[in-house]
Amino acid sequence: MVIKQSKALPSDILISVFANLSFAERRLTIPLVCKHWRAITQGPSPIWEDCEIFHDSSSRKLALDRAQVIRWLGKHAEAVRQLKLCVNQDTRPGDWPQSVAGLVALMSNLQILELDAKGFFLAAKDMRALSCLTSLRKMQLRLGTSAEAFSQPAVTEPLRHLTALESLAFDLNVHSNSLQLSEDLTHLNLKGLTYLELGSNGLSQLPFGPYLEQLQILDITDNGTLEDVGCLAAATSLHTLALGEDAPVQRSSLAALLPTDCVIVDDPLMIEDD
C-alpha cells in the first residue's frame, strides 16, 4: 500500500516509514519496486545515517554482497553515523565478508560502531582500520580472539587513537592473553570515557589508568574472573557499578573504594541512561 501511494508522499514521510526496514530491504529490495524511493537513495539522505549489516549464511535475504556494499559506501560513507555489523555464529569461515576494514575505513564521520562476531577472529588490518575513526563516541566490540590472533598487534591498540570515545563495551574472549589486555587498558588515554563494559576477557584485576578519571558507569556483570578492583578508588566520578549476583568481587571491600553516592546494581538493565 505504501509503495502504491509513494508518489503522493513527501520524502520525509517515506523516509520515516522505510526507516524501520532492514538495511538490505532499504538498499536492495525497495528501490526495485518504488521509483520515488530509488530517487531518494541516489542522493544524500538521513536514512543512511543508521546502517545495519547482517551476514547470516542461513538467510539469503540478510546476506549482502560485500563488494556491492563497499561500492555503495564509496558514495555514502560520509553520511553514515551509526554502523552495526553482525555475523551469525553458524556462518562458515568461508562466508565471512570481505575485510571489515573496507567497510569502516571510509566512514570518517562514524560516531557509533557495533561489531558483533563472537564466532570469528578479526584480522590485524581490520583492527587497525578502527584507528581512523576519530569521531567515534560509542563502540561495542564482541569478537572472537585467540593466542594466535595476539601474535598480531594487540586488539586494543586502535583504542589509543579513539580519544573521543565516551562509551566502550567489549567482550573479547582473550583469556589466554589477559595480561596483555590488562597492560593495553592501563595505557589507554581515554579521558572522556564515561561508560565501560567489560565482558568475558580473563582479567583478574581491573587495570589502573587515565580512563578511570571520568568513568561514571562500570558494568562487569559478564566478567566472571575480575576479583581485584582496588583501582576504583581513582574513579571519583563513578555513580553506578553493575556487578552481577555471582561476581567474584568482595562487596564488603567496596565501601572504602567507591564514592558515597555510587550505587551497586546486580542487573545492567537497572542502569539508568543519562
What CATH first level of the largest domain would be assigned? Answer: Alpha Beta
User: How do the strands of the widest beta sheet line up side by side?
Assistant: 1-2-3-4-5-6-7-8-9
Count of helical segments? 7
Largest sheet: 9 strands, parallel
Global morphology: elongated
- The helix/strand order is HHHEHEHEHEEHEEEE
The class by helix and strand makeup works out as alpha/beta
The total count of strands amounts to: 9
Strand content bin? 15-25%
Which consecutive residue ranges, at least 5 long each, have pLDDT under 50? 57-64, 146-153
Oligomer: single chain
Q: Please give the share of residues in helix.
A: 10-25%
Question: How would you describe the overall organization of this protein?
Answer:
The protein has 7 helices and 9 strands, in the order αααβαβαβαββαββββ. By secondary structure, it is of the alpha/beta class. The protein has 3 domains: 1-48, no CATH class; 50-133, no CATH class; 156-274, Leucine-rich repeat, LRR (right-handed beta-alpha superhelix). The protein has a 9-stranded parallel beta sheet, with no helix packed on it. Helix 6 (124-129) links the parallel strand 3 and strand 4 (138-144). Helix 2 crosses helix 3. The protein is elongated, with a radius of gyration of 21 Å. The two termini are 39 Å apart. Mean pLDDT is 71; it is low at 57-64 and 146-153. Residues 3-51 form the F-box domain. Pfam families: F-box-like. InterPro entries: F-box-like_dom_sf, F-box_dom, LRR_dom_sf.
